[in-house]
Amino acid sequence: MKDTESRKEFEARLTSLGQAYVAGLPRRFTDLRTALSQRNDEGVSEDGLQQLQRLAHSLAGSAKTFGLMQLGRRARALEAAVVDGIDDSRYLAKLIAECERADRTPRAVASVATGVRQVGHSVAEPPEVLVIEIDRVAGKELASQLNYFGFCARALDSRQAFVDAVRETTRPSAVIADVAYIAGGNDGSMGIRALRASGALPAPVVFLSRRDEFRTRLAAVQAGGAAYFTKPFDIVPLVDRLDALTGQERDTPYRVLVVDDEPEAGRYHAAVLSSGGFVTTVCDTPSAVPSVLSEFRPDLVLLDLHMPECSGADLAAVIRQIEGFLTMPIVFLSAEEDPQRRIGAMGRGGDDFISKPVIEEQLVAGIKMRVARARQIARLADRDGLTGLLKHTSIKEALSRELSNARRGDHACVFVLLDIDRFKNVNDTYGHLVGDRVIKSLARLLRNRLRESDWIGRYGGEEFAIVLPRCSVNAAQGLIEEIAHRFRAIRHHGAPGLDFSATFSAGAADYRLGDTVDAMIHAADSALYEAKRAGRDRVKVRPISG
């Protein structure tokens, strides 16, 4: 039902945009005649012809966007006549009149919406995980640990309770089960194998066992097991596997900036992309693009090639001069058919060309592939290999951007430094592999508990950095203390019979107008030092007055 309602909303939005475009056509025709009326001693002036060509080109592209194919062809004929050097005002006026007489009935919206697929990700409830363990105490402890990592885990104390749970209306996202529950019990209740065979248990199953032998592993696979862990096991690899199985390893929605001096056309293409799950914003003023880039931080810019204030090619060159956007994909959207002009535009900083009118499914799919590839490359360059968080330089760049945004918008911003307490002792006692798992567990907690708009980085070794835009220092302190509580409760497997917990200390700096990146880092570092000196395992804040 929700998908049907979304489709109806999408169709209604496109219909409304099409109606607004048709209602604005008389103004466009008036602009064409006004351009034609600009004369000098030799006839239509050069400025008038240039303006006429630009207006005709824009009309041809936008008309096809809204399915007015006849109008698009006649506007293209007008543009071609001007390009060919025809300056006979009567002939050009005739072509304008043919544009006015063209059919103004846009294509059916239903054909536009067909086949558009979601590519973004909405915020979901915590995945429900059922735990059925032969050792009931261990089962409750495992469920508790998973809850600290952001899952909604529930331990069940009998085979029948498990069968009843998986048959509830709300089915689990994943199941963790001891291999003893593969077969049915003496009470006649169903085991994992039978539940999966009957279709009653579609959720992925992770099996636990003290046995690391082929026969047991084979039985788990034949029962539909998606993963197998040998007891005792470390919680972090299990959490990583659950993330993959329950779809928690998700990118943030793709962000696209649409730049088009035709507001209706820009909103149309933004609507198509939004229907595919993209987060979009539209800018119809080229001079405003640099500030929009800084505020919106798009993954890709969809850029009209012909605009009055400056060409799309010139704007692409300007974007390439702005720090942080040198490698961001820029895709031109235009009805331009001249291959040399296309090549010239690509040479100014563009990555691809999409011709108007667009096929909506191809627009969504093409932009999705471009953004996914760009994110992959950026991840390799900007992300820490162990944690997937931003590297040292990248998190400092994020702080710089958010401070600039805070100055413009006069809003709050907090910078936090975290350091795992006595981490050297962890490495010395249990080894670096265990130390790496502790680092990964904190990284996973931070990603899970913070907002998509927040920036998280591995600052170095066991130290992390967080940028919290539009967040007060009191709210930041409460949030970090809640994460510290969860991290403190996690049990890490160091060696057989040697589980341990870890803590971290944190320092937070509150932004005030006029502060610099260096000042914020210094203040957060000083607050972190205070937390360490006060006994560790705590959060200290240090407001900065500007």
Structure summary:
With about 550 residues, the protein is of the alpha/beta class. The protein contains 21 helices and 19 strands. The protein has a 5-stranded parallel β-sheet, with helices on both faces.
Keyphrases for this structure?
546 residues, alpha/beta, Four Helix Bundle (Hemerythrin (Met), subunit A), Rossmann fold, 4 domains, five-stranded parallel β-sheet, 19 strands, disordered N terminus
How does this structure look, described?
The structure is a single chain. This protein is of the alpha/beta class and 546 residues long. It folds into four domains: 2-106, Four Helix Bundle (Hemerythrin (Met), subunit A) (Up-down Bundle); 128-245, Rossmann fold; 255-382, Rossmann fold; 392-543, Alpha-Beta Plaits, CATH 3.30.70.270. It has 21 helices and 19 strands. It has helices at residues 2-23, 25-36, 46-65, 69-83, 89-101, 109-113, 136-148, 159-166, 192-198, 214-222, 235-245, 263-275, 289-296, 312-320, 339-346, 360-382, 392-409, 423-430, 432-449, 473-489, 517-533, and strands at residues 39-40, 43-44, 128-132, 152-156, 174-178, 205-209, 225-230, 255-259, 279-283, 300-304, 330-334, 352-355, 413-420, 455-460, 463-469, 492-495, 498-500, 504-510, 539-543. The strands form five sheets. A five-stranded parallel β-sheet has the order 4-3-5-6-7, sandwiched between helices. It has a five-stranded parallel β-sheet with strand order 9-8-10-11-12, sandwiched between helices. Helix 2 packs antiparallel against helix 5 and helix 19 packs across helix 20 (473-489). The chain is elongated, with a radius of gyration of 30 Å. Residues 1-5 and 108-124 have low confidence and may be disordered.
